[in-house]
Amino acid sequence: MRATFIGLAGSLVPLALTQRLDKPPLETGLDYLQKGLLEYLGPVKSSYKKWTPGWIPSDCKTMTVNANLSVAHVETFSVQYEDVGTSVNVAFSEISNQCPNDPWLLCRHIDSPDPLENMIDLFGRVPVRARQWVRHIVNLPDPTNFTSAYNWAGNIAMFESINRDLTLFIHETGHSLDLLGAYPDNPLSTSRHWHAQYAKDSHVPDPYSQSNIYEDLAQNTVVAAYDLNVPGGIGVVEPKWRDVLHQFDTIEVEQRKAGGFAGERGSVHEAFEQ
Ligand SMILES: *[C@@H]1O[C@H](CO)[C@@H](O)[C@H](O)[C@H]1NC(C)=O
Ligand SMILES: *[C@@H]1O[C@H](CO)[C@@H](O)[C@H](O)[C@H]1NC(C)=O
């Protein structure tokens, strides 16, 4: 089942910025980007260890309790990706003062339908320098089997089976990049620059992007990830890419200024610059 709620945890967001956007959607969804993203953002080798039962990071605890689930049913895993090297899990280390090479912590409810390995694989495909801005991953079941996700304080909650939906993981990572300070314009979504660039486009990528400026930016992070990582860029699958150019291009420019978050290929976007 497709995720229909993939947003931010509500209370963070000032009212004016949660207004719906009135630009029309370019496509009915971003599923058409899935195949290329999975192909060119390949799996990353990893290993994991289960924490001693009874230990859980406090953010995982909060998110579990907020979902009315029992903390006693959540297992915590530390996940080490081999591409991390000397780079830093920024969000994690800033907040908890851990060492630079610390693994990610993944909290998983024992009734979550998605196997642990699926979640580790999918998150590993998010380019490492973007992944660094994500704190913890929390995978929980939903009583009505409804697939959804949200980002709270840099943590990503995934409900039910995410089922190899890499666009969803990149979308949620996009919220972390935006709101935790990855971009020179920080937060990008509330910056004058973003709003000026947004004003130049005739469309937003899809109906979910219309929810508000935060969700639009997160969906455009998916478009930018495709454009940067899949050979030929977004133009290969999206003939109307010019209608959202200023949005996804702004994300690419900000990522470049911040040192580049794309995959190994780096930017293939030069042809689109104006
Ligand atoms: C959790 O339970 C409370 C009280 O019954 C309810 O108001 C709230 O909506 C529930 N939250 C979720 C995410 O189910
Ligand atoms: C949710 O999925 C589980 C496992 O497939 C199934 O047993 C259960 O009946 C489903 N619940 C609902 C409310 O559809």
From TrEMBL:
<keyword id="KW-0732">Signal</keyword>
<feature type="signal peptide">
    <location>
        <begin position="1"/>
        <end position="18"/>
    </location>
</feature>
<protein>
    <recommendedName>
        <fullName>Conidiation-specific protein 13</fullName>
    </recommendedName>
</protein>
